[in-house]
Design brief:
Helices cover 79% and strands 0% of the residues. The protein is built from four helices and no strands. α1 packs antiparallel against α2, α1 packs antiparallel against α4 and α2 runs antiparallel to α3. The longest helix has 33 residues. This is DoxX family protein. Keywords: Membrane, Transmembrane, Transmembrane helix. It comes from Paraburkholderia metrosideri.
Length: 134
């Protein structure tokens, strides 16, 4: 496969990742808008509160990094979705969760897991600008 094709595929994958993170940001934003940044999410553990609230700021930052500094955005993207699914899986064992949101996180994790190698190869090739056409 040509380098240009790899870079193009990487760009498209990173756009999809960024859009998913923006969608997650919207969910966190709605919660913050209704309840405020210091909401206790109905009395959950303090670390869970901090983690979920932090995603309001972390997710859009990673989305931006995926587009402007791809190599710097892919690692935190993987870290966030892995920790989010791990945390929410643990949480779901002890509390009811919105299954649609939880399953969408699992689907995103699987999508990232199966495509991140291509995204990484194209993002770390010689030229990593936003242009998909050389």
């Amino acid at each position: 496969m040509r380098k240009q094709d790899i870079r193009r595929r990487s760009f498209y994958l990173r756009v999809i990742y960024a859009l998913c993170l923006v969608g997650a940001t919207w969910t966190h934003f709605q919660v913050a808008l209704v309840h405020g940044l210091d909401w206790d999410y109905g009395g959950v553990a303090r670390l869970t509160q901090v983690y979920w609230t932090s995603l309001l700021f972390v997710d859009p930052l990673i989305a931006l990094l995926l587009l402007v500094m791809p190599g710097a955005g892919l690692i935190p993207c993987v870290a966030v979705i892995v920790t989010d699914v791990a945390h929410n899986s643990w949480f779901a064992l002890h509390h009811p969760v919105r299954m649609d949101l939880y399953l969408s996180q699992i689907v995103f994790l699987l999508f990232v897991a199966f495509t991140v190698r291509t995204a990484w190869r194209g993002a770390t090739s010689r030229r990593t600008g936003l242009s998909v056409i050389d």
